Amino acid sequence: MIPLKDDNPTTTYPYITVGLIIINGLIFIYELSLGRHFEHFLNKYGAIPVFVLNMTSPIEYPPPYITVFTSMFLHGGFFHIAGNMLYLWIFGNNIEDSMGHLRFVVFYLISGIIAVYTFSIVNPHSTIPMVGASGAVSGVLGAYLILFPRAKVLTLIPFGFYMQIVKVPALFVLGMWIVIQLINGMVSGGAGGGVAWFAHVGGFLAGIVLVGLFKKRRG
User: Fold this and answer.
1) CA distance readout (Å), 92 to 4, 68, 108, 175
2) Which of 122, 157, 169, 151 is nearest to 1 (CA)?
3) Which of 34, 53, 82, 135 could link 199 by a cystine bridge, Cβ 3.0 to 4.6 Å?
4) Residue among 196, 79, 80, 58 nearest 129 (CA)
5) What's residue 182's pLDDT?
6) Measured between alpha carbons, how far is 56 from 66 in angstroms, rounded to an integer?
7) Domain for residue 219, yes or no?
8) Angstrom distance (rounded) from CA 94 to CA 10
């Protein structure tokens, strides 16, 4: 299932959501310009679990508490960033609207931090850098599930070679999404095919728990 658009209107312009998409896009363009140094850049500024948990890193690398943040804005390929930004664009505007711009920034970053540490705890000896906005975006999805479970999401569903676009409740779309993350995470032992499955799970659960603290209070 590929979500395309939701039917959930907002009352404010999503400056932060748009800004995050632009920042991620610009950084990815910079990554592509590095050529053969691309991989070294990801290693240097990605969140490496063994470094994150031990709070130490090689002298030529930034401190782990820096890479916890920088890793959220790095991506390993076009489909990686495209998928993350698509989900952020569809669901982020409503969460930003429900929290306010400043609270949304804090919520997004905290969700990303929790995602990094979840992945690191599950893979404590890993020296493979975790990169991508997916942990933070997963927090947005968790919050959306709590706040707007009945919202309809225009979704592309493949049936073999046949594609159909249907409106599906957010509860089903996001519920299926987290189930897939959990299954893949358990089958792969936490990371498989370069995907940090349990980072997604950690971010999603963070969003569910934190949304009540960050959403605006209704007068």
Assistant:
1) 13, 21, 9, 17
2) 157
3) 135
4) 196
5) 83
6) 11
7) no
8) 6
Please state whether beta strands 162-169 and 195-196 pair in parallel, antiparallel, or not at all (unpaired): unpaired
pLDDT at res. 72: 97
- Tens of pLDDT, residue by residue over 89-148, are 999 999 999 999 999 999 999 999 999 999 999 999 999 999 999 999 999 999 999 999
Which residue has 């990371």 as its token pair? 191
Is 200 part of the annotated catalytic residue set? yes
Domain range spanning residue 184? 2-214
CATH code for position 14: 1.20.1540.10
Catalytic residue status for 120: no
Instruction: Find out whether 196 and 130 touch, Cβ atoms under 8 Å.
Output: yes
Beta strand residue intervals within 75-161, DSSP E: 152-159
In-domain check, residue 50: yes
**d(C-alpha 10, C-alpha 79), whole Å:** 27
Q: Does this model's pTM top 0.90?
A: yes
- The answer to whether position 186 is within a domain reads yes
Q: Which amino acid is at 31?
A: E
Two tokens, residue 164? 């159909």
Number of domains in the chain: 1
Considering 80, 134, 138, 188, which one is annotated as catalytic? 134
